[in-house]
Design goal:
Layout: E1 4-8, E2 15-22, E3 37-40, E4 54-57, E5 63-66, E6 71-73, E7 86-88, H1 94-110, H2 121-141, H3 146-150, H4 153-162, H5 167-188, H6 196-212, H7 221-239, H8 242-254, E8 258-260, H9 262-267, E9 276-277, H10 278-284, H11 288-293, H12 299-321, H13 325-329, E10 336-341, E11 344-353, E12 361-367
Helix pairs in contact: 1-2, 2-5, 4-6, 5-6, 7-12
Length: about 375
């Protein structure tokens, strides 16, 4: 949990030994990004958490979210910033939102993943959006509160039956119910059920889903090789113009009137001297031939062209390194490492992974 310290709690005037705990202690990029400190002892209760308690901070120490907020922002603790690093309690009924926050806080404090590490941001996201929110919404449809639904075996089985083909919902709700049942009902005053009937139904549904799922046929290697070949053709073609493209892109970013239209000059109140016709802009950097191949005809299509370049290079990176998407997105500048061995030169890409543990681990992928 944390370092044990002495602290006087409000139960009388005696001193008791407590443990200090920071949410995302293992995932925070630095000390400033840590949450407020929690003091956990045998009398600790979720209900005692104040509304002003800081759940998350950015790497400069600025508050991102407090317990009272409808949106909890975990972007500082995620490998990459996506929509999956925010929990929106505002999508729930008010009473359900209060219960959901307590459940999420239990997961944040007590939750453990592989090797007893803290739960990753993605796992927390899935607990909320694949278990808590769907159950809350189903409860609302049936005129029952989230609190009561957690303690009703009949209602839980009804919910599971309706969602029997959604393995993700089944898995995360079963984990959550078991989690609450085994450890935190009494201490945290949240009652739930996880009976043998619930467990057996989840297992039965999971097996049926596996039996009924369509298996993806093995894609022949020649298709992969063809894709690699075509992407290299794109890259080689573009690489011939790389310097001109870089200069063109710099002008594209710095001057909204570059390669634009008079209508855009008026819309953005630009001065006439900023206006450069698209054809003149393309000719200036000798990109007419390249742009004709990819049908780049204006600023909008140029933006799409840039996305094409990105996608092409990104897929080659995945192909040659074996990275997953999120792992590749964690790469920074100067991430290529060259190592000399007896067998020759080995190239590695240095990035971050959560494959073996929910916390960020720096690792390297051999590439060629």
């Amino acid at each position: 949990m944390g370092t044990q310290i002495q602290k006087i709690i409000r139960y009388g005037n005696s001193k008791v030994t407590v443990q200090t705990y920071y949410i995302f202690d293992e995932l925070a990029p630095n000390e400033k990004a840590k949450s407020d400190v929690l003091y956990i002892d045998e009398n600790f209760k979720i209900e005692e958490i104040q509304n002003t308690f800081v759940i998350s901070r950015d790497n400069r120490g600025n508050t991102l979210s407090r317990f009272q907020d409808d949106i909890w922002d975990f972007s500082a603790y995620s490998v990459i910033s996506t929509y999956q690093d925010k929990i929106n309690f505002g999508t729930l009924r008010l009473d359900d939102s209060k219960i959901a926050k307590k459940i999420m806080l239990i997961l944040l404090i007590m939750g453990r993943g592989n090797k007893s590490s803290q739960l990753s941001v993605l796992t927390l996201y899935n607990y909320f959006y694949s278990a808590i929110r769907p159950l809350s919404q189903f409860s609302e449809q049936n005129n029952i509160s989230l609190m009561k639904s957690l303690f009703s075996e009949k209602f839980i089985l009804k919910y599971l039956y309706v969602n029997r083909k959604d393995t993700t919902k089944l898995r995360f709700l079963a984990r959550l119910l078991k989690y609450l049942c085994e450890s935190y009902n009494i201490i945290h005053n949240i009652q739930s059920v996880f009976t043998n009937e619930i467990k057996q139904f989840v297992e039965y549904s999971r097996k049926k889903n596996e039996e009924n799922s369509e298996q993806t046929l093995l894609i022949p290697s020649r298709i992969y090789l063809y894709g690699i070949k075509k992407r290299w053709e794109h890259i080689d073609n573009i690489n011939q113009y790389i310097n001109s493209l870089s200069d063109f892109f710099e002008q594209f970013l710095s001057n909204r009137g570059f390669g634009s239209t008079m209508a855009m000059i008026t819309k953005y109140n630009l001065i006439p001297s900023q206006y450069v016709k698209w054809t003149d802009a393309v000719s200036q950097f000798q990109l007419s031939k390249l742009f004709s191949i990819y049908e780049v005809k204006n600023r909008r299509s140029f933006a799409k062209f840039l996305n094409l370049i990105y996608s092409t290079c990104f897929h080659q990176l995945l192909t040659y390194s074996g990275m997953r998407r999120n792992e590749a997105l964690s790469l920074n500048n100067n991430c290529l490492i060259t190592t000399l061995t007896e067998s020759g030169t080995v190239l590695k890409l240095l990035g971050k992974t959560t494959k073996l543990t929910p916390s960020f681990e720096e690792t390297a992928w051999i590439t060629s």
